[in-house]
Amino acid sequence: MRVHVLQHVPFEGLGAIAAWLDSHGATVTTTRFYEDAVPPAVGPIDLLIVMGGPMSVHDEAFHPWLRDEKRVIARAIRQEKAVLGICLGAQLIAAALGARVSPSREREIGWFPVCGVSPLAGGTTAGGTPFGFPAECLVFHWHGETFALPAGAVRLARSEACPNQAFQYGRRVVGLQFHLEMTPGTVRELVEAGRGELVQSRFVQTAEEILAAPKTRYEQNNRLMGELLSFLAVNP
Q1: How many structural domains comprise the chain?
Q2: Per the CB 3.0–4.6 Å rule, which of 7, 99, 103, 154 could disulfide with 94?
Q3: What is the pLDDT of residue 38?
Q4: CA 152 to chain centre
């Protein structure tokens, strides 16, 4: 399996995804846009993973490589590659598919539940039944923007603060507004980098609340991420 990662900042890396890729013998390459803005060739890629970051999909004046990145994502989708977007990555997929990305009605930072949308309620994709999320799971969030559902996509999950938490487009493209890949170390890095954003509100937790999450919570999230990666990339 040939996997390419689009990474936007050093403190939002693969986390637990790295162990899953290693266990499946994946060859992993990375474009680090904060170091080198040269976009990758799509042809050799089996799975494209688009990571998070503090910038907006609209920040092309500050980050001109965003234009090329959206084109790479759109090309991968047209070529029916498996594509997974996380947080900013999901918003970039939505934008590449022509959907609107805009400020959320509530900022969500910390551990808050999302509810899976049943395939019957969410609809079906052109590629068949969507990935099934649990009826409710407690996951990690760090976002102030959200996406509209792209035309032809189905909603996979929602939350009280944000109605569009995950979507699937076709059989092999999934966008997650939340993070299932986090480990205690990657959460600590994110808290240190974004501590100034932790202005407590209904859906923004303190650093202490965020860092107090038990090991079992990470394990549950990482296991769900593994199931999603298998759904996208193994025997599609």
Answers
A1: 1
A2: 99
A3: 85
A4: 19
Q: CB within 8 A of 86, min separation 6: which ones?
A: 49, 50, 51, 52, 176, 179, 180, 181
Q: Which two tokens stand for residue 215?
A: 């090991």
Distance of alpha carbon 143 from alpha carbon 157, whole angstroms: 16
Do 57 and 31 form a contact (C-beta atoms < 8 A)?
no
* 3-state SS, residue 120: helix
> 135-172, pLDDT tens digit by residue?
999 999 999 999 999 999 999 999 999 999 999 999 99
Q: Cβ distance 112 to 210 under 8 Å?
A: no
Q: Do 161 and 112 meet the contact criterion of CB atoms below 8 Å apart? A: yes
Per the CB < 8 A criterion, the answer to whether 129 and 117 are in contact is no
- For the cut 80, the answer to whether the pLDDT of residue 125 exceeds it is no
- 8 A C-beta contact, residue 139 and residue 49: no
Query: What letter does residue 157 receive in the DSSP assignment?
Result: E
Could you tell me the CATH number of the domain that includes residue 53?
Answer: 3.40.50.880
pLDDT digits (tens, 9 = 90+) for 192-201: 999 999 998 9
Q: Which ranges constitute the DSSP H helices of 79-214?
A: 88-96, 119-122, 184-193, 207-211
Q: Distance of CA 1 to CAs 74, 75, 82, Å?
A: 20, 19, 11
Residue 86: give the domain boundaries.
2-233
| 3-state SS, residue 43 | coil
